[in-house]
Specification:
Strand content of chain A: under 5%
Number of domains of chain B: 2
Largest sheet of chain A: none
Shape of chain A: globular
Number of domains of chain A: 1
Radius of gyration of chain B: 23 Å
Oligomer: heterodimer
Helix content of chain B: 55-70%
Number of strands of chain A: 0
Number of helices of chain A: 5
Largest interface: A-B, 36 and 53 residues
Order of helices and strands of chain A: HHHHH
Helix content of chain A: 55-70%
Radius of gyration of chain A: 12 Å
Order of helices and strands of chain B: EEHHHHHHHHH
Largest sheet of chain B: 2 strands, antiparallel
Strand content of chain B: under 5%
Distance between the termini of chain A: 27 Å
Number of helices of chain B: 9
């Protein structure tokens, strides 16, 4: 992510960190099932784009739920 | 709604989704029950959380290079212990919209990641935003990005100085330009990740509105 992108953040409406955490497990399983998580949980992908901490945890959860670890 | 849970247990759990998969249903039933079944489930849950915590710490091995094997083990155990408390405290929130294991994993990942970020910064002073942070080239190292976005970067720099409050400016620059993890800054300020992110979000909205009003935000320059 460039400095400008980091300063300006995502263009789309986004949820906050608490809402992201609350729905992250469902979001990951929809992703792994090949479904469209953004249709079910709008605003979460934009938050992951804007929040490095939540994005890192999303990557880890996805890997674990997909059988890593 | 109340749904009877099977497996020979007579308990009912408010709010359990009727489509919950059998394995998740068994986890919830055992953890909400009592006696030997619960004790066994607690043991399995802690093992699951410890595996997730170790997985997260393993991904952050570079950040934690200064820790001994014993210290990393202690950190994973602390993360699993704290995650277990959180899982049990929020068991009633689980609706079966994912597998129970995925739901539980996220608590261990959050605890482990937060502890690792804070551990990595524990002996470091937070950098205060210097004036020249926004004068440096784009940190992703793409020369074309620096060249193409020079005008926009200058406008963003001016907007940061002009339209943000001092708190918004310091938080945004410390996290984005100074690359301080949100959890670390939240701990030092006695607040939460969510509250700090709200500050960043509000600052970004202000910057975007200002740049849009100046006609500088059209096109693809800042899209992902």
């Amino acid at each position: 992510m460039s400095l400008i992108e980091g300063l300006l953040g995502p263009d789309d409406p986004e949820v906050g960190c608490d809402e992201c955490f609350a729905d992250l497990d469902r979001y990951v399983e929809l992703e792994l099932a090949g479904e469209d998580p953004d249709a079910v949980l709008p605003g979460l992908r934009a938050h992951l784009a804007g929040c490095l901490a939540c994005r890192e945890e999303h990557e880890s959860l996805r890997a674990l739920a997909d059988g890593a670890g | 709604m109340e749904v009877s849970i099977g497996g020979g247990l007579a308990a009912t759990l408010p709010g359990v989704d009727p489509v919950m998969d059998p394995e998740s249903r068994a986890w919830v039933a055992a953890l909400a029950g009592d006696g030997g079944d619960r004790e066994a489930a607690l043991g399995r849950l802690h093992a699951l959380l410890l595996r997730a915590a170790r997985f997260e710490l393993g991904r952050r091995r570079g950040q934690l290079a200064g820790l001994s094997v014993a210290e990393r083990h202690d950190l994973a155990t602390q993360a699993a212990d704290d995650a277990m408390m959180a899982v049990l405290a929020r068991l009633g929130d689980f609706r079966g919209l994912s597998r129970f294991t995925t739901w539980a994993y996220k608590f261990a990942l959050l605890e482990a990641a937060t502890k690792a970020r804070r551990m990595a910064w524990r002996a470091r002073e937070l950098p205060r935003p210097p004036e020249d942070w926004l004068a440096v080239a784009d940190p992703d190292g793409r020369p074309e990005a620096a060249a193409e976005h020079a005008e926009l970067l200058a406008a963003v720099r001016d907007a940061v100085a002009e339209v943000l409050t001092p708190q918004q400016r310091e938080v945004l620059l410390t996290v984005v330009a100074g690359r301080v993890p949100l959890d670390v800054l939240a701990e030092r300020r006695g607040t939460t990740r969510g509250a700090l992110y709200k500050t960043i979000h509000d600052a970004r909205r202000k910057l975007r509105a200002h740049l849009a009003a100046s006609g500088l935000l059209a096109g693809e320059e800042v899209s992902r």
